Amino acid sequence: MSERFTEFAEIPQQFVKEGTQFVNRCTKPSKQEYIQLCRAVAVGFAVMGFIGFFVKLIHIPINNILVYVALLIPSPPTPRFKLLPTSR
C-alpha cells in the first residue's frame, strides 16, 4: 500500500519538476522576434477575414436565388387548427 502511495505521489512531483525546468529554459522573445510574430498573426487574421468575406459574398446571392425560387413554388395552404385524432 505504501508503494502505491509513493508511486501516486511521484507523478505530481515529477510534473512540477519538469514544469519548472521548462520555464527556466524559456526566454522572452527579442523585439525582432516579437514583431515577426505579430506580423504573422496579423497576416493570418487578414487571410481568414478575406476568406470569410468572399465565402459570404458568394453565398448571399445563392441564398437569395433559392429563397426567390421557393417563393415562386406554390405551397399548400396550412390549416389554422390542427385536428386531433379521435379514438372510438
Automatic annotation (TrEMBL):
Belongs to the SecE/SEC61-gamma family. This is Protein translocase SEC61 complex gamma subunit, archaeal and eukaryotic. Keywords: Endoplasmic reticulum, Membrane, Protein transport, Translocation, Transmembrane, Transmembrane helix, Transport. GO terms for cellular component: endoplasmic reticulum membrane. It is a single-pass membrane protein. InterPro entries: Prot_translocase_SecE_dom_sf, Translocase_Sec61-g, Translocase_SecE/Sec61-g. It holds the Pfam family SecE. GO terms for molecular function: protein transmembrane transporter activity. PANTHER family: SEC61 GAMMA SUBUNIT. GO terms for biological process: intracellular protein transport; protein targeting.
